[in-house]
Amino acid sequence: MLTLNFSPFPVLKTERLFLKRITNEDANEIIALRSNPETMKYIPRPLIKTNEQALEHIAQINSITETNEGINWGITLKDNPKIIGFIGYFRIKPEHYRAEIGYMLLPEFHGKGIIPEAVKTVIDYGFNEMKLHSIEAVIDPDNLASERVLQKMGFVKEGHFKESEYYEGRFLDSVIYSLLNKKSI
């Protein structure tokens, strides 16, 4: 079984990006991401519209990091500390060496290769530091941009679940993609 320890918090760097811990100072950026109907279009979760809701969300993110149940990074450009998205692992199953990756980005940064760059770095961290055997991603089947990112990164479609989640009076489909670490165990 995996033993995870996210202390000290691992700051990750890419050619253009810093992936850093999300703090209370990032509340406005969390609101910008999580209150935007375009950003949240494929994420069946309530919109965050107030500073209090943003601070609660940040506290939740940091709580799962402190208990080693998950980890989320704020995505920033190297030349600007403002968070433009986030990425992380949640629903970690240590007994199965598996975790779910998720990510989101402000629409004005779409199509610039930021998410693939961040995903590659977080996959490397998951396989090499966390010692994961597999990473899954659960997406809305209409989220073609996310599907393209996953396919580009080598993820394979495992299944399409019909009306598997109920949110705001509707049943929603979900698609699961996965990537195996061929060097694990």
Count helical runs.
4
The sequence of SSEs as H and E is EEHHEEEHEHEE
- The outline comes out as globular
What class would the helix/strand composition place it in?
alpha+beta
How would you characterize this protein structure?
- With 185 residues, the chain is α+β, with helices and mostly antiparallel strands.
- 26% of the residues lie in helices and 35% in strands.
- It contains four helices and eight strands; from the N terminus they run E-E-H-H-E-E-E-H-E-H-E-E.
- It has an eight-stranded mixed β-sheet with strand order 1-2-3-4-5-6-8-7, with helices on both faces.
- Strand 3 and strand 4 form a beta hairpin.
- The protein is globular and about 40 Å long.
- It starts with 11 loop residues before the first strand and ends in a 5-residue tail after the last strand.
Quick recap:
By secondary structure, the chain is α+β, with helices and mostly antiparallel strands. It has helices at residues 27-34, 51-66, 114-128, 144-152; strands spanning 12-13, 17-20, 71-77, 80-93, 98-105, 134-139, 156-167, 170-180. Helix 1 (27-34) crosses helix 2.
Search tags:
single chain; 185 residues; 4 helices; alpha+beta
Note the topology.
Elements: E1 12-13, E2 17-20, H1 27-34, H2 51-66, E3 71-77, E4 80-93, E5 98-105, H3 114-128, E6 134-139, H4 144-152, E7 156-167, E8 170-180
Parallel strand pairs: 5-6
Antiparallel strand pairs: 1-2, 2-3, 3-4, 4-5, 6-8, 7-8
Helix pairs in contact: 1-2
